[in-house]
Design a protein that fits this description.
Blueprint (H helix, E strand, L loop, with lengths): L12 H9 L8 H14 L4 H6 L1 H7 L5 H4 L4 H8 L8 H21 L2 H6 L7 E2 L13 H12 L7 H10 L3 E2 L10
Parallel strand pairs: 1-2
Helix pairs in contact: 2-7, 2-10, 9-10
InterPro entries: Adenine_glyco, DNA-3mA_glycosylase, DNA_glycosylase, Tag
Pfam families: Adenine_glyco
Protein name: DNA-3-methyladenine glycosylase I
Length: 185
């Protein structure tokens, strides 16, 4: 019997694996949360599929998403990244990633972990929605608006409400699996 999945992931096995193994599953580790912040910020204006296909290239180019290293990237590292055809070569997004790594660590200092900070916006546990169709899944919510506004106030870049909501879905802060999807909790 074939598994029923959310329709957006049926493009290929890479997409199905991401949907089945990661999307909508709660993530509490700062390292993984940061990885998704980087990937989601690069996704702004592009498709998630494009980013997912380049994920390993991003991982290699950005020191395995080590925010402590990224926070110290020099101009020569930025130039090296701009020459890397395996990633999205957008100078503003690369600079934003360096900036966001620095801001990420500031939030860690203030809250003890970035995870405590970000999960506080949903009361520490996932919001489980019950969409019947993809059309019922929002691009933003009041919570993503509030979180995006707070991130901006803290100096983060390329993390508007749509990107933040996608991040919330990816890290399981929100579960938007369709009601008939085999991953629905």
């Amino acid at each position: 019997m074939e598994l029923i999945r959310c329709g957006w992931c049926e493009k290929d096995d890479l997409y199905r694996k991401y949907h089945d193994d990661e999307w909508g599953k709660p993530v509490y580790g700062d390292e993984t949360i940061f990885e998704f912040l980087v990937l989601e910020s690069f996704q702004a204006g592009l498709s998630w599929y494009t980013i997912l296909n380049k994920r390993e290239n991003f991982r290699n180019a950005f020191d395995n998403f080590n925010y402590k290293k990224i926070a110290k990237y020099s101009e020569s590292k930025v130039e090296e990244l701009m020459q890397n055809s395996g990633i999205i070569r957008n100078r503003l997004k690369i600079l934003a990633t360096i900036n966001n790594a620095q801001k990420f660590m500031e939030v860690q200092k203030e809250f003890g972990s970035f995870s405590k900070y970000i999960w506080s916006f949903v009361g520490g546990k996932p919001i489980v929605n019950h969409p019947k169709t993809l059309g019922e899944v929002p691009a933003t919510t009041e919570i993503s608006d509030t979180l995006a506004k707070d991130l901006k106030k803290r100096g983060f870049k390329f993390l508007g409400s749509t990107v933040v909501y996608a991040h919330m879905q990816a890290t399981g802060m929100v579960c938007d699996h369709l009601v008939d999807c085999h991953c629905k909790n």
